[in-house]
Design brief:
Elements: E1 2-8, H1 10-13, H2 20-31, E2 35-42, H3 46-59, E3 62-66, H4 77-85, E4 89-91, H5 93-105, E5 119-121, E6 125-127, E7 136-141, E8 144-149, H6 153-168, E9 175-183, H7 188-195, H8 198-201, E10 206-212, E11 215-224, H9 227-245, E12 249-252, H10 257-268, E13 272-276, H11 282-288, H12 293-296, E14 297-302, H13 317-323, H14 328-342, E15 346-350, E16 354-355, E17 366-374, E18 378-385, H15 389-407
Parallel strand pairs: 1-2, 1-3, 3-8, 13-14, 13-15
Antiparallel strand pairs: 4-5, 6-7, 7-8, 9-11, 9-12, 10-11, 15-17, 16-17, 17-18
Helix pairs in contact: 2-6, 3-4, 10-15
């Protein structure tokens, strides 16, 4: 059984809204063995929506549509589906009352325009939406299922989990499972070469390389007649990869580097101190999103430049004069000093960003240093970065946390 996800709304086409709905629906369908083959997006135009429905009808077994169910003039999805399925709209008085009560609870009178949301197709199953005024709809045609649900994310998620997934579960004997291996500090092509036997491994499961600022994710996807069958295939491929790229793997699936680092620190009973210049507190912010943050942090500081902390951290003036503010030597001295002052087990410092004045340098135009200190040693790492400021901050924060993770 395959599926198509159809997202409706001009806001998606113009880039105003990121289509996170399709990602959520795709994942949930995959979990129950439905193969998502197509994801489409169209604007709030009758002809485009009709053509998209027709195209999906011609190739997919399950079609899930989001968006265009609101009460205003540009919300035409329901009317277009009625046209496609030859439906008549009828007033659902019980639904109308529920909509009225939602407004009443907020101390508001229901606008007349919202009565339209209680008008439902006479040949569709109504899907309850406790979090909004527009119900979901299910049409059936020639053994195919069409779901029409709101585009508001929390309404969409509830309808997918409470109505769509329970309805579709068990309709296919196919199982799909995937595993994501998360790597860092190595490029996509180098990773491919190190694995070396991708073509052979793909005889067992499909493999995809997904580069991002944090590194390269490797997704292993297996199809099988049972969950056990899928997991065995994934395990076989994963074990072959680990033998070849173990040094670059830091996590799996949805794990974040900050969670991996906090987990490691809690396991070892250690605390850290942070001092950030270029990353501007991003490392501390990411770590603080983990519930275990309070137990692993000794101190966290943000500054616009390391030189300003010279007297406070008792760094000799000679260090600045000989090496400069953006240097491996100063960054490691700062890490060493803040670790000692906070009585932490480890310390991490990021320097400012130093631009390289090279007009021909389109890929990399600067660098910074990460300094590390423990009770017995210090080390550093130089990071080369590109022209995108936000990308650079995120990448530097990720590599800094990975650098610390590798030291402990």
């Amino acid at each position: 059984m395959n599926a198509e996800i159809l997202s409706i709304g001009d806001e998606i086409l113009i880039g105003q809204t990121v289509n996170t709905n399709a990602a959520f629906i795709g994942r949930k369908l995959t979990e129950i063995g439905i193969d998502v083959r197509w994801v489409s997006a169209v604007g709030d135009t009758r002809d485009d929506i009709l053509n998209a429905i027709s195209a999906a009808d011609s190739r997919a077994d399950v079609i899930i549509t989001t968006g265009g169910l609101g009460p205003t003039h540009d919300d035409i999805t329901k009317n277009v589906f009625c046209e496609y399925f030859g439906s008549n709209l009828v007033l659902d008085k019980a639904l109308q009352e529920k909509v009225r009560q939602r407004f009443e609870k907020r101390g508001m009178e229901m606008p007349a325009v919202n009565i339209g949301q209680a008008m439902v197709p006479d040949n569709a199953e109504i899907l309850k939406n406790p979090f909004g005024t527009a119900p979901g709809l299910r049409f059936e045609k020639n053994g195919k299922y069409f779901f029409v649900i709101p585009g508001v994310p929390f309404e969409m998620k509830n309808l997918v989990l409470s109505e769509i997934i329970p309805f579709l579960s068990g309709m296919t004997n196919n199982f799909i499972r995937y595993r994501t291996i998360r790597t860092t500090d190595i490029g996509e092509s180098s990773l491919f070469e190190k694995i070396d036997i991708v073509d052979k491994l793909q005889e067992t499961a499909s493999i995809a390389f997904l580069p991002k600022y944090s590194g390269v994710d490797i997704r292993i996807t297996a199809h099988g007649s049972s969950e056990r069958d899928c997991l065995q295939k994934i395990k076989k491929v994963e074990e072959s990869m680990i033998l070849r790229i173990q040094d670059y793997i830091w996590g799996y699936d949805d794990q974040l580097i900050e969670n991996a680092l906090v987990e490691r620190l809690i396991e070892t009973g250690k605390r850290i101190a942070l001092l950030e210049v270029f990353t501007g507190g991003l490392i501390a912010e990411k770590l603080s999103n983990d519930p275990g943050f309070k137990s692993i942090i000794a101190e966290a500081m943000i500054t616009s430049g390391l030189e300003k902390l010279a007297s406070q951290l008792q760094i000799p003036r000679k260090t600045f004069e000989e090496h400069g503010e953006i240097s491996a030597e100063l960054t490691t001295e700062i890490a060493k000093s803040i670790r000692h002052r906070s009585n932490a087990d480890y310390a991490l410092a990021t320097s400012a960003f130093k631009e390289i004045s090279d007009e021909d340098s389109r890929e990399q135009n600067g660098f910074l240093y990460i300094g590390f200190a423990s009770k017995t040693e210090t080390s550093f790492r130089e990071i080369r970065l590109s022209k995108d400021y936000i990308f650079n901050k995120n990448r530097a924060a990720h590599l800094a946390m990975d650098f610390l993770r590798r030291q402990i």
